[in-house]
Amino acid sequence: MTDIGVVLVVQAAVSVPWVLPRDPRLEPASLPAYLLTSLTVLPLLWRRRAPVRVLFAVMAAQSLYGLAVDGPGQTLPYTGLVALYSVAAHAPAPARRVCGALTLAIVFPSVALNTGEARELVFSLMVFTAAYGFGRFTDVRQAYTRAVEDRARQLEVTRRIEAEHAAARERARIAREMHDILSHAVSLMIVQAEAGPVAVRTAPDRAEAAFDAISETGRDAMVQLRRMLGVLREWGPGAPRSPLPSLAELPALVERVRSSGLAVTHTVTGPERPLPRDTDSAVYRIVQEALTNTVKHAAATGAAVLLAYGEDGLTVSVTDDGRGTGTGTGTSTGTGTGHGLIGIRERAAAHGGSARTGPGPDGRGFRVDITLPLVPVTSSSEVGS
Questions:
Q1: Host H or E run for residue 305
Q2: CA 274 – CA 299 distance, rounded (Å)
């Protein structure tokens, strides 16, 4: 449609000598002359697809007009200017340079055959040079626009990929949180429920405590699940992060596990210091998962939780006296395939730390050791609650 519009505009411009009254002493504005003039305009329809051919077709038509008829001239060589502009804007570099030089070379004999005046020569060189320059400017501007658009598309693709990766990481984080909450709660409830019938017959007081522990564990799991789902519903820039568990809740966790019959000790060494909120929550989840594994799989009678604060790191150890694994040790790059151990290693690695799991002291029981770097907390808003 743009090319058709250009053709119509140029046709209107070259038709002016046939529309306005003319001096009888000038060349007559005959119909054959008008048809030949229109023939010079028609090739412009293909100026984008074949700019070089269009330029030569326009030159040939103009030469035919000058040789075949003695008609009125034009104020400006409209068709030649548009054709040269199209070559400069759309033709490959070698072709446009040759066509530009050839067009300027043709100007000299054309002016000599017309008026031969220096004034006309300078004017013709200026307008054809300007047409070529405008064509090059258009080509550069379009290339820049294409580059910007390509860059925008690449950024959009990159943004979409990053969003997908972020969503995948968030799904994995939620899966770990759900696994920790449900696995811990259900494991404790199963242990208490299995011990309940025996305690009913032998020690009613212990049975009542077991059922109370089941109820408390279930309520705590429901509270944590509601908090997590609330965070998901309110996810956004201003979403609250207070539902994340923290080390402040670790004594309550140890007490719940202790109520299941496992003798758990909780020891802290070194000067305690505030941790970033995410690290604080990760340490809680690591201890929770380690104790859950002990309750579910170790058949242990006791476990020890140790938090050792060093100058630049925090070491978390959870050791039990159960049957262990009998499979050797594993590290953060080891081959342990349990979902709980995988989650522990992933949490440690996500905070720049390392994880080692394997037999406890003297090859007895099972031990989980986590080492995390301590990053200084610069804002109270980053401290775990």
A1: strand 302-309
A2: 34
Q: In whole angstroms, give the CA distance from residue 132 to residue 100.
A: 7
pLDDT digits (tens, 9 = 90+) for 63-96: 787 776 766 777 778 888 888 898 888 888 888 8
Query: What DSSP line would sit under 323-375, residue for residue?
Result: ---SS--EETTS----HHHHHHHHHHHHTT-EEEEEE-GGG-SEEEEEEEE-P
**8 A C-beta contact, residue 337 and residue 291:** no
In angstroms, the CA 272 to CA 328 distance is: 32
**Rounded to whole angstroms, how far apart are CA atoms 32 and 237?**
75
Question: What's the one-letter identity of residue 246?
Answer: S
Q: CA of 305: how far to CAs of 73, 120, 200, 259, 368, in Å?
A: 102, 99, 31, 16, 10
Residues 319 and 366: beta-carbon distance below 8 Å? yes
Structure tokens at 157: 């693709």
The full DSSP string for 37-105 is: HHHHHGGGGGTTTSHHHHHHHHHHHHHHHHHH------SS-HHHHHHHHHHHHHS-HHHHHHHHHHHHH
372: left (phi over 0), alpha (psi -120 to 50) or beta: beta
Per-residue model confidence as pLDDT tens digits over 339-381: 678 778 888 888 888 999 888 887 788 999 999 998 766 554 4
Which phi and psi (to 5°) does residue 219 adopt? -65, -40
Instruction: State the angle between helix axes of 51-68 and 31-41 in degrees (0 to 180), rounded to the nearest 10.
Output: 160
Greatest Cα pair distance, the chain, in angstroms, is 134
> Which position has the token pair 């809740």?
249
The secondary structure of residue 27, as a DSSP letter, is P
Q: How far apart are CA 186 and CA 206, in angstroms?
A: 19
This prediction has a pTM of 0.46
Two structure tokens written together for 6 = 């250009």
